[in-house]
Specification:
Elements: H1 3-8, H2 36-41, E1 50-56, H3 62-75, E2 80-84, H4 89-99, E3 106-108, H5 113-123, E4 127-131, H6 146-163, E5 166-171, H7 184-188, E6 191-197, E7 211-218, E8 227-232, E9 235-238
Parallel strand pairs: 1-5, 1-6, 2-3, 2-4, 4-5
Antiparallel strand pairs: 6-7, 7-8, 8-9
Helix pairs in contact: 5-6
Amino acid sequence: MDTNLKRLFKDTKDFQNVHEVEVPEQMNQRLKTGIDFVDQMFSEGWVPGSVTLFTGDPGAGKSTLSLQIADAFSQQGILTVFNSAEEHVVQVKKAVDRLGLENPFFVSNSNNIDNVLKRCKQNDVKVLIVDSLQTMGSGKLDPGNTKAMKSVVQKVIQYTKEYFIVSILIGHVTKNGTFGGPSSLKHMTDAHLHLDLCNNPNCLVCECGTRTLNLEKFRFGLSNQPQQLLLYPDGFRKI
């Protein structure tokens, strides 16, 4: 550290010259799903060490798209876990069969983030998808309350950045379109992905049932143009 800087700080333990900071090689290697409309939104791939909050209108298909993403990552040999505290693993399997997904990713039903992260560490998981944030507890905090949600996000962020994985947290949106949790969570995460659903049969902009995928925040690049999607029996496709 420059001697002039040393004079400014009596104790430099908590401070570091910005030019001495080393960027881990893992953060320069984007993870692509192979789903074009998803990868394009993230500047050609997801950044290891990043946490994405994925919200969407009720019934828009957040879980469906997340299952497609899990399948796409696993197709490349990337160890992926889809933890659903909302549905039993049998229900998740039925959704996987309905969508015709064929690649092996792992599912679990834990409603405590500590258990999930413990298992991720034991198995060197590279992608973690949590469905959903509102159904997860943390430590002795029961699921659903503000303290639990903040604790879950904080622990996922800490783990994600320590082990350079990709984490996706699905979040509920209320019927009036607002996020079902403290707005501070959007600021804590690295990216915010949102799936809109058009329910207006008289819409002049798009066909009723059209989904629009928006990347509303992305710390590692520019947010790309919204993607218009339609949901078919075998999953989402770009219009």
